[in-house]
């Protein structure tokens, strides 16, 4: 399970070329520093990013979620959507979004927190409830992912 969270983190790291400029990444991408797009400067509008995030819902019209459930990815997408809408997300609502049991979702969330994809904190008004959000680094990675998706859909390299 921890391996899946680490693989997800590694997958998101491959998108980092749009937001940082490490030489190891440049050589892997075959890009020079001047050729790199700046994801944050060229990011689609908030409305476009929300539209791109909601594309995932099309799949459920044609395929059962039970066969294609990916709880960590569903949680990341939901957290990004809520981040763009300036909404707080409770841990319990994130479990529902994951599409798996609360126990499985809890393990995935622990793994995601362990690799730095998310952060959690107690509700100051109700100590029984926890909130969760993407880490700053994950926000950058998800923004890069959405930029790459938008460019792909527009036929740009």
Automatic annotation (TrEMBL):
<dbReference type="InterPro" id="IPR000835">
    <property type="entry name" value="HTH_MarR-typ"/>
</dbReference>
<dbReference type="InterPro" id="IPR023187">
    <property type="entry name" value="Tscrpt_reg_MarR-type_CS"/>
</dbReference>
<dbReference type="Pfam" id="PF12802">
    <property type="entry name" value="MarR_2"/>
</dbReference>
<protein>
    <recommendedName>
        <fullName>HTH marR-type domain-containing protein</fullName>
    </recommendedName>
</protein>
<feature type="domain" description="HTH marR-type">
    <location>
        <begin position="70"/>
        <end position="129"/>
    </location>
</feature>
<dbReference type="GO" id="GO:0003700">
    <property type="term" value="F:DNA-binding transcription factor activity"/>
</dbReference>
<dbReference type="InterPro" id="IPR036390">
    <property type="entry name" value="WH_DNA-bd_sf"/>
</dbReference>
<keyword id="KW-0805">Transcription regulation</keyword>
<feature type="region of interest" description="Disordered">
    <location>
        <begin position="17"/>
        <end position="43"/>
    </location>
</feature>
<keyword id="KW-0238">DNA-binding</keyword>
<keyword id="KW-0804">Transcription</keyword>
<dbReference type="InterPro" id="IPR036388">
    <property type="entry name" value="WH-like_DNA-bd_sf"/>
</dbReference>
<dbReference type="GO" id="GO:0003677">
    <property type="term" value="F:DNA binding"/>
</dbReference>
<feature type="compositionally biased region" description="Polar residues">
    <location>
        <begin position="17"/>
        <end position="32"/>
    </location>
</feature>
């Amino acid at each position: 399970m921890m391996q899946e969270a680490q693989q997800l983190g590694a997958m998101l790291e491959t998108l980092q070329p749009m937001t940082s400029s490490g030489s190891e990444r440049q050589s892997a991408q075959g890009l020079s520093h001047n050729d790199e797009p700046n994801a944050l400067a060229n990011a689609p509008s908030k409305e476009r990013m929300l539209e791109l995030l909601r594309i995932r819902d099309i799949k459920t019209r044609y395929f059962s979620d039970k066969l294609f459930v990916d709880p960590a990815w569903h949680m990341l997408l939901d957290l990004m959507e809520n981040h763009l809408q300036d909404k707080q997300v409770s841990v319990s609502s994130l479990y529902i979004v994951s599409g798996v049991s609360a126990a499985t979702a809890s393990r995935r969330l622990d793994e995601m927190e362990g690799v730095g994809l998310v952060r959690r904190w107690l509700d100051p008004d109700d100590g029984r409830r926890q909130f969760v959000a993407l880490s700053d680094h994950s926000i950058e990675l998800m923004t890069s992912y959405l930029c790459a998706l938008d460019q792909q859909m527009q036929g740009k390299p």
